[in-house]
Amino acid sequence: MKQADYASFVEPDRVRKEVYTDAQIFEREMERIHETVWIYCGHESQIPKAGDYYAVQIGRQPMILVRGKDKKVHVLYNRCPHRGNMIVGDRKGNTGEQFRCSYHAWTFHHDGKLKNIPMMESGYAGTRLNKDSPELCLKRAARVESYRGFVFASLAEKGPSLKEYLGKAIVAFDDMCDRAPEGEVEVVPNCFRVIQHSNWKLFMENQIDALHPSVTHQSTGRAAHEVEKILARKAKAGEALSYHMLSAFATVTIDKWDNFQTINYPHGHCILTGYMGLRPQDPDTLAYDKVMIKAYGKKRFEEIVGVNIHHVLVYPGLSVQSPLQQLRAVRPLGVDRTLTEIWHFRLKGAPEPIYRRSLAYYNLVNSPATLINADDLENFWKCHQGLSSEGGDWVSFARHHGHDIEKDGTVESAPNMGTSEAPMRNQMKAWAEFMR
Amino acid sequence: MKAQQEVEQFLYRQAELLDTKQWQKWIDLFAADGIYWMPPDASYKTWDGQPAIFAEDKNLMTVRMLRVLHPDAWSQRPLWGTNHVVSNVVIRKIAGNGDVEVGSRFHMMELRRDDVRHFAGSYFHVLKKSKSGYRIKLQRVDMTNAQAAYDYVLQVWV
Questions:
Q1: Neighbouring residues of A322: CB distance < 8 A, sequence distance ≥ 6
Q2: In this structure, are residues A33 and A431 in contact, taking their beta carbons and an 8 Å threshold?
Q3: Distance between CA atoms of A258 and A24, rounded to whole angstroms?
Q4: Which partner for A13 in A6, A131, A242, A401 could form a disulfide, CB atoms 3.0-4.6 Å apart?
Q5: B48 in reach of chain A (CB within 8 A)
Q6: Could you give the CA distance from residue A242 to residue A86 in angstroms, rounded to a whole number?
Q7: Which residues of A touch B41 (CB under 8 A)?
Q8: What is the pLDDT of residues A23-67, one digit of tens each?
Q9: Residue A209 three-state SS
Q10: Beta carbons of A220 and B67 less than 8 Å apart
Q11: B112 touching A (Cβ < 8 Å)
């Protein structure tokens, strides 16, 4: 295929299947989208000390997120300017005073500036290289910005600022941090990493597909509900264990998911409203409420816990469940392979049981032994296989099309049409603009 | 040596029940307060209040079992099976009442659809002696590949 007009692959309510399966389109996506826009690198609390680093993938580029001696966070290409060796081979660690290449011992400061080359004077006299040559530094990401501890990088010199790019989707980070009495969150070490055998876009579409849970996850929903019933028979009144976060997939029937709502923003971002546990009244929550009211005052507290969010999607590769402090970063590995890194956070200053609520969700839903995503991953694989076939040319996003309510640049699904495929239409609209 | 043999037979039976998908019989090997735990990293000292790949009591084990037995557990539809080999069984501690702490190593080959995966690591079992044989108080599973990216996920216990 020569440089096709990829934007023409996207129609308002459907897209060509090649968008998911064509390797050339994937390369162009990496160039135009992932290696251009703001991509999430990590949280500042991952790298508290000078020299702490994490390897991170931005599009096809191996990068290093590192804390400098000046406390600044830097994002560098993981490539020695000498012969191209990767500078760090580990996923994380502390590099000490400097980066030192394992091939010929070139050393670099945390900000990427050249520190020393062995035999610089004798070896490079009269060559095109000298100590001040800019090409002797580790190349830096063009732009790095942090918002409330969440670090993003853009590999493009020009473009909107992080805040401009996030737009209203910035609520993902505000909602998560505001729920902490100290207004900050802290990462819990060791993310879970799961690979799916499909194109990355299937993940982003599924995250905000309010129709799929009661179909895809019904086995787990029903199983959890069965065990809840057994426990309720055994327990004293009010003491029965609940697996609400699992059983909801069966007890909330298809029609009820329409009560949710999606709000879609420019650049492909989206919010799914309706939080399952909205305002629980158990003793742990009430104790947390007290701490929060003390920190913020009654009025501000009500505003904070009143934020009605289930999920925020930051296009192209971030899914944030702020009320449960979960974050999934999508790293495309190839047209048919995608890695997700799954993190969770502690609300600073919140009582321990509130952390445990987040942890329970993290372990049950997001661990590599997940009771939920196993069936999503199975669907992703099946989708990718089917889309790779000659059995059809289009993917349909027509559900509730024509009913979306557009105002001031945002697109809302109509009332009682929460299962609208508006988020997919919005993502593909942004995709077409990036790929033009 | 009697305890050594009893413990070995018990661990082999545990693995055999997994490989033959006799989930309820496998769950029955656990004591009423038994825990199945797979930490994300060997440095973890407790399952309680920390991230875990698995941290399941018998109730959660039952949820997982009912899930995989449900006809619409889509990820169960492709053919899959496992083969465990358990070895290097070393009793670390025997109490006066016969309770034991035992370490061992395992290797599990899994076939799922046409894909083969290998998982290997160590078991640490705390076994309570009862009239009807051992019951598992704790089964800790430290996988050598715990920190590697999971190509797909784990469906059931290892």
A1: A171, A172, A173, A175, A176, A179, A307, A309, A312
A2: yes
A3: 37
A4: A401
A5: no
A6: 48
A7: 190
A8: 999 999 999 999 999 999 999 999 999 999 999 999 999 999 999
A9: coil
A10: yes
A11: no
Q: What is the pLDDT of residue A70?
A: 93
For residues A356 and A394, is the Cβ–Cβ distance under 8 A?
no
Residue of A nearest to B157 (CA): A369
Cβ(B49)–Cβ(A188) below 8 Å = no
State in Å, rounded, how far the first CA of chain A is from the last one.
16
What string of pLDDT tens digits covers the 158 residues of chain B? 799 999 999 999 999 999 999 999 999 999 999 999 999 999 999 999 999 999 999 999 999 999 999 988 888 888 889 999 999 999 999 999 999 999 999 999 999 988 899 999 999 999 999 988 999 999 999 999 888 888 888 989 99
- Indicate if the alpha-carbon torsion angle A271, A282, A231, B33 is positive or negative: positive
B63, A223: Cβ pair inside 8 Å?
A: yes
Residues A196 and A68 placed together within one structural domain of the fold? no
pTM of the model: 0.94
CATH code assigned at A96: 2.102.10.10
Q: How far is B68 from chain A (nearest CA, A)?
A: 8
Residue A10 within a domain: no
B149/A194 Cβ within 8 A:
yes
Spell out which residues of chain B touch residue A377, defining contact as CB-CB under 8 Å. 75, 152-153
Give the separation between CA A347 and CA A166, rounded to whole angstroms.
22
Q: Which among B62, B70, B71 has the least Cβ separation from residue A227?
A: B62
Question: What is the ipTM for the molecules in this complex?
Answer: 0.93
B70, B150, B158, best to mutate vs chain A, most A CBs in 10 Å: B150
- Shared-domain flag, residues A266 and A407: yes
Provide the CATH number for the domain formed by B2-41+51-143 in this structure: 3.10.450.50
Q: Which domain holds residue A63?
A: 39-147
d(CA B75, nearest CA chain A) in Å:
5
> Domain locations in chain B?
2-41+51-143
B129: contact with A, CB 8 A cutoff: no
Q: Please state, as a whole number, how many other Cβ atoms lie within 10 Å of the Cβ of residue B153.
A: 23
DSSP readout, A70-90? Answer: TS-EEEEES--TTT---S--S
Q: Measure B8 CA to nearest chain A CA, in Å.
A: 27
